[in-house]
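Aim 2 progress update. The chain analyzed this quarter is reproduced below.
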Amino acid sequence: QRDRACACREGRRGRAGLGQGRAFRAACMLAAKAGKPIVVMRAGRSSVGAATAISHTGAMAGDDAVNLAAFRQLGLICVDSLEELVVTCAYLAKHDTPKGPRAAFISVSGGFCELFADRAEQVGLSVPPLSEATQAALRQILPSSAMVTNPVDTTGVAQTDRTLFPRVMEVVSRDPNVDVLFVSHNKWHCE
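Predicted structure tokens:
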């Protein structure tokens, strides 16, 4: 009995791989139906990587865009690196799977907010507008110079007011437009 799974998918082996692909698809569908997330790191995505997969395993990597679309259709959580695989699996070991792809991000840095927005789009997350109620609550908490949009830049004030960041997190976590909340903050400033 497993609650979660992670995999490194290198490719498929010729026509015999089609049967393995069907079994893989069936296993993914069963896991999704049971609410058990599967995290997959795809190897052999570049032309050199695909050639290496053939020489290393005899497996054909296939078109990465097609594989990515198929994996997402199956509800798999796709990651691009070993670090992302470990971090994602560690997260899922302690938390439930997010209910959907609508993400919010909070940081003390506008630059980190921009990086998050870029990466979210790359991995298929949406960054929805915050509800009017959330924006109104943030206006009561944040300095007047702060934007009350998603991603939320708390400004440098959060470095000196140690209560600000947790209050912003509480408000944003209750937003009905948000399925998962990501934060970036210097831990040593939090109490």
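The first strand starts at residue 5 and ends at 9. Residues 13-19, 55-61 have pLDDT under 50 and may be disordered. These observations will guide the mutagenesis experiments scheduled for the next reporting period.
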